[in-house]
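Hallway conversation turned thread

IA: we were arguing at lunch whether anyone had actually written out Energy-coupling factor transport system substrate-specific component end to end. Turns out nobody had. So, for the record, here is the sequence (213 residues) and right after it the structure tokens. Reply here if something looks off.
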Amino acid sequence: MHATLAPQNTSNTSGTAPARIGNWRVVDIVVASVLGVAAGVVFWAWGLAWETVSSPLKAALPGVQAGLAAVWLFAGVLGGLVIRKPGAAIYTSTLAAVVSALVGTQWGGFLTIEAGLVQGLGAELIFLLFLYRRWTLPVAILAGASAGLGMAINDLLLWYPGAATQFLLIYTVSAIIGGAVIAGALSWFAVRGLAATGALSRFASGRQARIAA
């Protein structure tokens, strides 16, 4: 990616915005990095609380804890919705995982970073599917669900090889639903909330949300 100060076209308020492939500005890189670092701290804190919050779910219905694991998915979706550039979801999600790994995680550095990359890729694929031109709530939900599917596949292959079919299904469905709600819908509303404060005024996402409101 490289930096440029070319202005963005913000005349369209329907949820469609033109993409400029590979055209990142300095402010895009800075804000994506801030989001990634902040998300990484949240990821680390969620890791500390994970056994406490997930144990009751594991005991009640093994696999359903994947719904809460979707907290680890929001970075990619949020980064993509704010920056609206190719690679934003992967960059933000992976950076968040790197920060979490550097601070310290019980799952190890490599596997934490690898998971962040896979989860960011899941969200990125949805934004790519819409050619980086649609940033509506349904698209955000799909991006979160796709990140959840990526998480489920990755986790089941690395952490639960040979698990029973029932567990596989429950884990996958829970991850997708959790991703859609927590990473997808909540990230979309978070962007609108940030836009209302003027914090995203230098981004199409901020200006568009304020016009729509």
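OS: looked through it. The longest helix spans residues 26-60.
IA: good, adding that to the notes. Strands lie at 2-3, 23-24.
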